[in-house]
């Protein structure tokens, strides 16, 4: 028996696995709340310069008794091209002549202005408080908003590197418990941040915890569930994240204060931390870590919960070792990142997948973190962005299963890029069309994510599969870090970010066409198997291409 068969022997997908899967899924509902949180905690409200003036001795005091707020604003702050108050400048001196409807001002642009020296006034009709309004991250400081999101994504990258290595050394369960606690504590500390610097530090640590929860949660789920149910469980986790986007929109609508919103999405992780002590460590990891006695103990516990106590009592260290000889032998073979580029076929796979993972994450967060740019209700578009994942993932599953992985991967990326580029030519006034194109693009990128996870695991052989997934995860995180930074380029060329967001998935979609197809192909075990399989495939293609051009002996004889 293999370990998978041993797992079936103690209950398969029994009560223990169902409870385990549900408990691991609960935190996933709040994952989107942290990933996309800055759409609401860092929302930019309408603003203009703060005006301080004593009008008691002005000529208009005797006429009106009290100058109306809109009139005070008119003489203090210039108007932009849309007849809205300028966001970053005010008049050096009060322009009282603008109150006189009979007076004519030849050129408003010649009136001397200055930066907002006394702060800003913000529209608080939608959000009563955000990090933008609290720390004045506007005008010269407006790029700090994108920097904060990149710092959070950098935390996710660092967490993947640090916690991924630590989990192989100290176990999945211990690291998962720690990451739940870290997420709860640092998320709560973020809500009480006294400064923007402290906010960024806590967000970085939250990102690290996020990555640790994903990596160790997935590992425990995969290592405790039977092979036949892993696809269903994985799909369920994906939809839990999608539902989390609806939850985020509802909670953000109900809580317009960023500190309370941050607190509400962080406190549930204290509950996760408490119940996670019930979790069982991965028996597979315990055996490979040289602790088979503990593995037997955990398997007997699982058998008891699954009402397979008799089967559990038959287990011992010798039975466990004999059933896991293949897994134990595989740990003695050492493979490194060099093996991802050492041979030609695996090297091509690695390079193409780097493009696919980077651009999918890059364009995804370029769209998902820019909801205010579409000019519609931010809560509604958050729900629409979440809802599109349902049909997108469903359609991608059909094309993956019946047409192929390569076709699905290339098509979704190219369509996403084209929809993003199309928005460059749509006027800002056509908000509905711009939103439809963005939602379609986001759906394509969600389908691309759905495909690339499966595709990557099938392309890499078993001996370097985890190493390849680690490289892919790193490239995805680099894409999510870069996306907010590219957004800053709109200060110089307004449509430049859209060009970059759109071009990247198109290029990677073309790169995806150079990947081998894996539909109905057994998983490769070794690097040599991947190389041999590719050479065999090329030979078959050459035969097909050369067959029409070869002379037919029968026809020549006649």
From TrEMBL:
Molecular function via GO: transmembrane transporter activity
Protein name in the entry: Solute carrier family 22 member 6-A
UniProt cross-references to InterPro entries, sorted A to Z: MFS_dom, MFS_sugar_transport-like, MFS_trans_sf, Orgcat_transp/SVOP
One Gene Ontology CC term in the entry: membrane
Superkingdom: Eukaryota
Topology within the bilayer: Multi-pass membrane protein
Domain Major facilitator superfamily (MFS) profile: 98-520
Protein family membership: Belongs to the major facilitator (TC 2.A.1) superfamily. Organic cation transporter (TC 2.A.1.19) family.
SUPFAM superfamilies to which the protein is assigned, alphabetical: MFS general substrate transporter
Keyword Metal-binding: no
Keywords recorded for this protein, A-Z: Membrane, Transmembrane, Transmembrane helix
PANTHER family found in the cross-reference section: SOLUTE CARRIER FAMILY 22 MEMBER (PTHR24064)
Subcellular locations according to the entry: Endomembrane system
The keyword S-adenosyl-L-methionine appears for this protein: no
TM helices/strands, residue ranges: 12-32, 150-168, 201-224, 236-255, 261-280, 349-368, 374-395, 407-426, 432-455, 495-515
Organism: Chelonia mydas
């Amino acid at each position: 028996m293999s370990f998978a068969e041993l797992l079936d022997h103690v209950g398969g997908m029994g009560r223990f696995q169902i409870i385990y899967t549900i408990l691991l899924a609960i935190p996933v509902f709040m994952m989107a709340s942290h990933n996309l949180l800055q759409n609401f905690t860092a929302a930019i409200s309408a603003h203009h310069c703060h005006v301080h003036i004593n009008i008691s001795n002005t000529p208009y005091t005797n006429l009106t008794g009290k100058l109306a707020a809109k009139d005070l604003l008119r003489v203090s702050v210039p108007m932009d091209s849309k007849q809205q108050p300028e966001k970053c400048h005010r008049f050096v001196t009060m322009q009282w002549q603008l109150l006189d409807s009979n007076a004519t001002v030849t050129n408003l642009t010649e009136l001397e202005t200055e930066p907002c020296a006394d702060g800003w006034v913000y529209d608080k009709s939608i959000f009563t408080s955000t990090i933008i309004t609290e720390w004045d991250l506007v005008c010269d400081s407006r790029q700090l908003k994108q920097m904060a999101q990149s710092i959070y994504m950098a935390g996710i990258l660092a967490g993947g590197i640090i916690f991924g290595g630590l989990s192989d050394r100290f176990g999945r369960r211990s690291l998962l418990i720690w990451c739940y606690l870290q997420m709860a504590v640092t998320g709560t500390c973020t809500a009480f941040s006294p400064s923007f610097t402290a906010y960024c530090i806590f967000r970085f640590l939250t990102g690290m915890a996020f990555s640790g929860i994903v990596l160790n949660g997935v590992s425990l789920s995969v290592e405790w569930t039977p092979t036949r149910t892993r696809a269903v469980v994985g799909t369920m986790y994906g939809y839990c994240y999608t539902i989390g986007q609806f939850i985020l929109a509802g909670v953000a609508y109900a809580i317009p204060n960023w500190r309370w919103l941050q607190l509400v999405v962080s406190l549930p992780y204290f509950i996760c931390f408490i119940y996670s002590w019930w979790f069982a460590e991965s028996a597979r990891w315990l055996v490979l870590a040289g602790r088979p006695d503990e593995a037997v103990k955990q398997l007997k516990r699982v058998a008891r919960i699954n009402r397979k106590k008799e089967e559990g009592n038959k287990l011992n260290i010798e039975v466990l070792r004999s059933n896991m000889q293949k897994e134990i032998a595989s740990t003695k073979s050492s493979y490194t990142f060099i093996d991802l580029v050492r041979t030609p076929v695996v090297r091509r796979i690695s390079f193409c997948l780097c493009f696919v993972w980077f651009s999918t994450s890059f364009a995804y967060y370029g769209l998902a973190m820019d909801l205010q740019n579409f000019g519609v209700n931010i809560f509604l578009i958050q729900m629409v962005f979440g809802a599109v994942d349902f049909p997108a993932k469903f359609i991608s599953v059909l094309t993956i299963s019946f047409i192929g992985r390569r076709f699905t991967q290339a098509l979704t990326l190219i369509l996403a890029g084209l929809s993003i580029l199309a928005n460059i030519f749509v006027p800002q006034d056509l908000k509905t069309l711009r939103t439809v194109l963005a939602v379609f693009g986001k759906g394509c990128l969600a389908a691309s994510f759905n495909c690339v996870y499966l595709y990557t695991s099938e392309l890499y052989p078993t001996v370097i599969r985890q190493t390849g997934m680690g490289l892919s995860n790193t490239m995805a995180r680099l894409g999510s870090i870069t996306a907010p930074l590219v957004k800053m380029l709109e200060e110089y060329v307004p449509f430049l970010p859209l060009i970059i967001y759109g071009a990247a998935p198109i290029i990677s979609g073309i790169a995806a066409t150079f990947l081998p197809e894996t539909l109905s192909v057994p998983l490769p075990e070794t690097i040599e198997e991947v190389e041999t399989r590719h050479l065999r495939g090329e030979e078959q293609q050459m035969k097909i291409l050369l067959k029409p051009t070869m002379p037919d002996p029968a026809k020549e004889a006649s």
